[in-house]
Each structure stands twice: as C-alpha cells, then as structure tokens.
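Long-time lurker, first post. I've been practising inverse folding by hand and with some scripts of my own, and I keep getting stuck on stretches where the structure tokens seem ambiguous. Below is the full token string for one chain I'm working on. Before anyone asks, I'm not after the true native sequence, just a reasonable design that respects the backbone. If someone could post their per-position residues I'd love to compare against what I wrote down in my notebook.
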C-alpha cells in the first residue's frame, strides 16, 4: 500500500501511466496498490466518512472486475464489473453465492463515475457507500479486506452485460489490504534534513530443516553527537524472499554492558542457539526501537514525534531479531533483508516508543482443535501502567497499532478501559497473518493512570486435529499488539496469562512436580495420568466446540487470578509480576446501527436504565422501549425479548429476572410473571410451570430441566427442587451433577456453590461436600470430610510462579 504522489513526467509508486504518449496521473487519490504480480492491475482509491471511490487502471480492452470477499473466495463476495464499449462506460453491481458467474444485484449500489479506454488499457472510476444496508454488499471498514481482481480481453456480448462477462481464465487473483487506512503524508517532512542508515542481515543461510528461524545480529548505530529522531521505517526485502521474511524487532542494548561485535561479513546467529553470544541476551531488556511485520510496508510517524536515537543514556548498539518463515522447507535460500531508518537532527516535540501488550508466549496458552471461534484475552495490569506513567509524569498518546497473531488468528481487537468504560482502540474482524499492517490512528488515544489495555484474539482451528500451543513458530500461536505511542517511558512489554492452575485443572490434572531444568510439568496425580506429558493430557481432553467455549470462558473468568508480566527496560527498576483478581472488563457503549432503527450492541455488554430500547445482550434496561436479544433485567414498558429480564412485558429466550406480566420464555430468569417461565428461565415466580433451563422456580407447577428452586422436581440444570438436581443445577436436594451447586450429591465440572456430599470438580466452586474438590476451584463454606490433597493446589501454583519468574528473567 502506498500514498500517491504525482509530478510532471515523474513516475512515483506506479501512479502514472502513458496513454498514447500522454501522462495520466491519478493525483486526486490518496491510496494505491498494484494487485497482480505482473503489474497489469493498478487500483487507486480515496474515502471519506460515507463513501469510497476507486479507479482501476488495467492493461486490457475487455471487462474489469473488482470484488470484496469475506475470506478470499468467491462465495459471499460483493463484486463490481465494468467495461468500455464503443466509447461508453458500463458498470454492474453483482454478488457471488458460489464459484460461478456472479448474478446482477437487485440493488445497484456501485456507481459509475467515468470510464475510457485506449489501445492498451481500460480505466474505470466508480464509488460506493461504505455501508449500503444491502445484505449482498460487504461493509467497508477498518478491517483487512480480501480484494478480488479479474479481467478479460473481451467485453460482455450484450451491451447491458446482463448475460454476464466471459470467464476470466487465469486473469484473476486476490490481495489483502486495509482500504480505510490512515497514511501519513511524507510531504510534511519535506523540508527536514534527513539521513538514512540500513540494518540488514549479511547473506543468512535460511535453514531447510525447520519452518521457523529467529535470526539475530547486533549493529552499531551511527556515532551521533546529539539526539536525533527516526521518522520513517522502510523494509528492505531481498528479492524473491518476500514469502519468508516475516517480521523484525529492533532492541536497544544496555549502554553499561559490553556487547560482542561480529566482523562485518559475519551473518549473525540463531537467536535461540547456544552459539549466540551471551552478552546479546540483555539487549532484549532494552527499549524497542522498531517493529515491522509482513505486509506492513513503510511506516511514517506523525510530524510531532519521532523515535529517539543518540540520547545520552542510549547505547550505540542495537540487536535486530528477524523471523524467517519457511513452511515448505525450501533449501538454498540466502537473505540480506532488513530495515532502513530515516532520521533527522531537527527534533520533533515528542519521543516515541513501542509497547507490546497481549498474552505471554508460553506453551500454556492453549487453543483447542476443531473450534471456529476460540477467544483468548491478554491485558496490561493497571498497577503496571500506573507505575510507569507516574514515573513519566504524564499520560501517553497511542498513535499506531500493529496486530500480531499467527495462522489461526481471524480476529484481533485492542481495547482501552478508562473510568470503567471499555472502548475499541483498533480492531480487525478479518485479520490476515500475511498483512500485519501498522494502523496509524486517525485520532490519538490517551492512556491515563488507572487505565487498562486489553488485547482480544479469536482463533479458527477447524483445520487442526491437535491442540495448538503458544510459541514462536508460525504453527504455534501468539496474541500480541504493538502500540506506537509518545512520550516514551520505560515499559517495553506488558503481557498477562490466565492461571496455569485453571488449565491443568480443566484437563483433570490433580498434582504435579516440576522439572526445573526445562520448566516442564510432570504429572503425579491422578494415577491414570502420571505417565502422561502436559501435551498428552491436553490432547486427551474430548474437545468439542462447546467444550472449547467452556474452556475459554473458564480461562477468562474462572476463580484463579490472571497475572501480568511487567517487563521494563534497563532504565527502570519496576520489572515484576502482578497478580490480578480477575480479567478486567468495562461497560461497553452501544454502537449505532445505521441499518436499523435501534442501536447495535457489542456482545457481552450491558445497558442501564436507558430511555430508549435496550438492545442485544444488554442488561438492566429500564427503557420505555423493548429489551431485545441477550438483555438482562429489562424493566421497560415494552416486552423483554431474548435474554431479557425484569421486563413488564413478556420475557423471552435466555431472559433473566423477568418481572413481566407475560410469560418468561427460554433463558429467562427470576420470572415473576403470571405466565409460565420457559426453557433457560431462572427464579420463576409465575403461576405456570418453570420449564427447561429455568432456575429458582417458585411456581406451583413442576420445575423442569435447568430450573431451580421449584416446588416440583428439578431436572437438568435445576436447583432447589424436591427431586434430584442434574447438570447445571443448584440448590437441589438430590445429587448435583455437571454445572450444579448446592446439591447433596456430587457437583462436577462447571458447578457452583455445591453443598452436596459429593466432590466438586474442575470449575466447581464452594464445595461443601464430604469428598474433595479438585483443581480449578476453591473449598467452599461447607465442611469437606474427604482427604483433600494440598498438592492439587500447591503444585500447579508453584508451576505458575516458576513460569512467572522465567518470563521475567528470560530474554
């Protein structure tokens, strides 16, 4: 992706073309890409808050096609096809439901602006609203877009094009790009005195026996008499190696430590091999000077900030780590790629820094197989941020965001919690591993003391048959965001991890020993798992999509605390691990849905006492309008719909606390209506029966599956009934099984408040039974007469502590 600059007879970024000797310049566009490898399809575009306008310049005299795909395939794509015939330009809005000729859309939302052709090229200019509300159109937003392109040397046979274009053959392809990106104009720094310095590898032989290689080399920076600012980072990729050079990280070394300098011709070392000089390791403790990943292009910083270089307390040495990705195990590849730093002596107003936030990279980050949307969340603890912000003496401003996960990543979201309100900093719901583009913010985000930074990653592992673990290999996974910000402080990484206790308990592990040499977990209980490795135990879990969802929720919101690794640079003493009670969350402001009368609500959010309708998954809605899907505690005068509760109208699916005069339906809870409380309902006080999924039913009819406190028998999920309480139940006088609590029988995984005489197992809580609770929960208020082994808690806790120490001390 590049910015378009044109001048008289100057070719810049392929932004000009020669038609019969005349230079045609797309100088009114802000963005451009060459979509194909042969340079025949050039796309230019510009946008505002409502529309996007394209110009396609294609080496053909036939039809030209441009599509927006959800995943790179034809099905689900929004397509525009145009051509010029007998001097008249044509454009049709089409869509694809399969790999076939795309039919014409009934709603023609792509608008033709102009078009012409000559003997070699067809040029079409057209536009569209970012959001059309047509179900066959794709919303154009800040996500990564899969852009389809195609052409043919012939026009459609009929003038209207209704019959469709002839098949494109091999003239087609796909390219990922971020259409709504904020590119900083380099013309703003045109008058500055600038210098360049290249950090490039030296003919590295990329191993053919491993798919992932991290290669390190130390460089000496220019000898500067005073501080300068780096204002641009430009990748230099060896021709032909674009597919193997994945990302760079550049760390400043410690000025007060010696660093081994290799001869100029020396290629460097594998970053994780014993051959790497030991004194290179401490360089990882330094400030990040630069971060770049595949597809990122050139990074230009705002004109009021720059990365400092040549400060008095800075070392003149930096360590560059380069990740090579060679999944085909190709041999004979040599590489001299790197970064070009552009710097100036004309200092900007602010020093910039790079802060990494996400999940700590360990194999205890687990992603189950065959799961379409597994969610992991990492965050930076408020105490960690506060310590460094207080040391800095002012808040920081986020100006850029780079998402980083691996092959399973499909969505990434960076969020800020400020004064209890949780908002998006940046998000990509169509993440592409091969386009880790640095998003420069249109509006800077301020981070104050008391704030929390979160990173959420969603993974699709449907094509994996085994568990995927956190790690550095491309086939492993990560969940990390790199924030570009100013002014610079002394925090380089702030990562979190859910409790290892929770992970081990979910797999059924009761007790462990630790191999301190390689920090491996050795299982010692239960007996049937003592010969299993940690990985074998995780693979032995009968993973289903529902089991994976339960695991994700347990990791995020389970009893045991997350911890944050607060990794400072060598200039700061605050370098520690902080324990948190729970995953921090804030109130999420509903987003306006321009295609409906109401508002669109983010999942997992709540609305309180609004005068308008409470929408999807909202809670405590006291509005005058209806409470809709996923809401809770709705007190509106209209009906409370799915997930709603306490509505004066009827409460429907998944509702809770429904106090309406009509019946509370599936998922409802606390229904006090005169009608029946139906599946999923809880606390139903209606005169009708409490049905499946209901809880705390006080109705005169029987409480059915999922019900609680009913006067009739409580079945699956029920509690408080005179009959047995089964899965998900609570307060039953019969045995409580999975998800149950307070039953006199055993409470198993997912159970809460179990007062039964049986054991409470992983995820269960407050077990007062006579048999022991297992890893994953605490001992409840009831007396446990069984033999509970402290090792079930202490050993996993020791493992967690050891891993924390390891993460703090490791490079």
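-- Answer (accepted) --
I ran through it position by position. Result:
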């Amino acid at each position: 992706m590049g910015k378009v600059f044109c001048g008289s007879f100057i070719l810049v970024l392929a932004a000009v073309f020669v038609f019969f000797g005349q230079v045609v310049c797309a100088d009114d566009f802000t963005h451009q890409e060459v979509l194909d490898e042969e340079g025949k399809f050039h796309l230019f575009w510009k946008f505002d808050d409502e529309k996007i306008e394209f110009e396609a310049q294609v080496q053909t005299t036939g039809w030209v096609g441009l599509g927006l795909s959800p995943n790179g395939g034809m099905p689900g794509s929004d397509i525009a096809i145009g051509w010029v015939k007998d001097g008249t330009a044509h454009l049709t809005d089409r869509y694809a439901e399969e790999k076939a000729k795309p039919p014409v859309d009934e709603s023609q939302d792509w608008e033709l602006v102009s078009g012409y052709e000559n003997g070699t090229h067809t040029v079409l200019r057209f536009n569209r609203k970012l959001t059309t509300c047509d179900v066959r159109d794709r919303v154009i937003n800040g996500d990564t877009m899969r852009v389809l392109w195609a052409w043919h040397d012939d026009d459609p046979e009929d003038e209207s094009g209704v019959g469709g274009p002839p098949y494109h053959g091999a003239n087609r392809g796909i390219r990922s790009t971020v259409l709504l990106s904020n590119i900083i104009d380099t013309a703003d720094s045109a008058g500055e005195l600038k210098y360049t310095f290249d950090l490039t590898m030296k003919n590295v032989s990329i191993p053919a026996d491993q798919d992932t290689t991290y290669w390190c080399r130390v460089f000496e920076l220019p000898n500067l008499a005073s501080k300068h600012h780096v204002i641009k980072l430009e990748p230099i990729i060896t021709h032909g190696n674009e597919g193997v050079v994945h990302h760079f990280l550049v760390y400043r070394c410690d000025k007060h430590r010696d660093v081994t300098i290799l001869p100029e011709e020396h290629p460097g070392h594998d970053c994780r091999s014993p051959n790497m000089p030991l004194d290179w390791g401490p360089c990882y403790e330094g400030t990040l000077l630069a971060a770049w990943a595949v597809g990122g292009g050139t990074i230009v910083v705002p004109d009021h900030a720059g990365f400092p270089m040549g400060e008095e307390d800075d070392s003149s040495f930096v360590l560059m780590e380069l990740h090579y990705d060679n999944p085909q195990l190709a041999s004979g590849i040599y590489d001299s790629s790197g970064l070009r730093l552009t710097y100036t002596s004309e200092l900007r107003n602010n020093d910039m820094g790079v802060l990494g936030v996400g999940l700590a990279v360990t194999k205890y980050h687990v992603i189950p197989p065959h799961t379409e949307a597994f969610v992991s969340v990492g965050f930076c603890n408020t105490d960690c941020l506060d310590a460094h912000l207080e040391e800095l003496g002012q808040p920081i401003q986020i100006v850029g965001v780079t998402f980083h996960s691996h092959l399973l990543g499909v969505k990434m979201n960076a969020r800020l919690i400020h004064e209890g309100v949780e908002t998006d900093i940046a998000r990509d719901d169509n993440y592409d591993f091969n386009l880790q583009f640095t998003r420069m913010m249109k509006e800077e985000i301020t981070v104050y003391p008391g704030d929390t930074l979160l990173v959420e990653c969603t993974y699709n592992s449907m094509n994996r048959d085994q568990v995927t673990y956190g790690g550095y290999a491309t086939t492993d996974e990560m969940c990390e965001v790199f924030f570009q910000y100013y002014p610079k402080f002394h925090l380089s990484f702030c990562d979190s991890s859910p409790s290892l206790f929770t992970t081990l308990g979910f797999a059924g592990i009761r007790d462990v020993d630790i191999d301190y040499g390689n920090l491996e977990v050795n299982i010692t209980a239960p007996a049937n798992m003592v010969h299993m490795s940690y990985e074998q135990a995780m693979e032995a879990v009968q993973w289903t999509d529902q089991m994976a969802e339960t695991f994700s929720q347990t990791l995020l919101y389970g009893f045991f605390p997350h911890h944050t690794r607060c990794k400072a640079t060598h200039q700061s003493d605050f370098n520690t691990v902080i324990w948190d009670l729970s995953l921090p969350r804030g109130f999420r402001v509903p987003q306006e849905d321009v295609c409906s009368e109401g508002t669109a609500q983010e999942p997992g959010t709540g609305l309180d006492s609004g005068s308008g309708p409470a929408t999807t998954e909202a809670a405590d809605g006291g509005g005058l309008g209806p409470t809709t899907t996923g809401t809770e505690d709705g007190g509106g005068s209209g009906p409370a719909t799915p997930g709603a509760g306490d509505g004066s109208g009827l409460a429907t699916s998944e509702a809770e606390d429904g106090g309406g005069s009509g019946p509370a339906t599936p998922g409802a809870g606390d229904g006090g209506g005169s009608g029946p409380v139906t599946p999923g309902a809880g606390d139903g006080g209606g005169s009708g029966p409490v049905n499946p999924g209901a809880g705390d039913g006080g109705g005169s009819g029987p409480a059915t599956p999922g019900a609680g406190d009913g006067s009739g028998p409580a079945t699956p999920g029920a509690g408080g009934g005179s009959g047995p309480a089964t899965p998900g139940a609570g307060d039953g006088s019969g045995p409580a099984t999975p998800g149950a609590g307070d039953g006199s029988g055993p409470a198993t995984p997912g159970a809460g408040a179990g007062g039964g005489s049986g054991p409470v197992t992983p995820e269960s809580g407050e077990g007062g039974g006579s048999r022991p609770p297992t890893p994953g929960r605490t001992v409840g208020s009831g007396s446990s007469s069984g033999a509970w082994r402290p090792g079930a808690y202490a050993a996993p806790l020791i493992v967690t502590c050891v891993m924390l120490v390891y993460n703090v001390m490791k490079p």
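A couple of notes from the structure itself: The mean pLDDT is 75. The longest strand covers residues 409-418. Happy to go over any region you disagree with.
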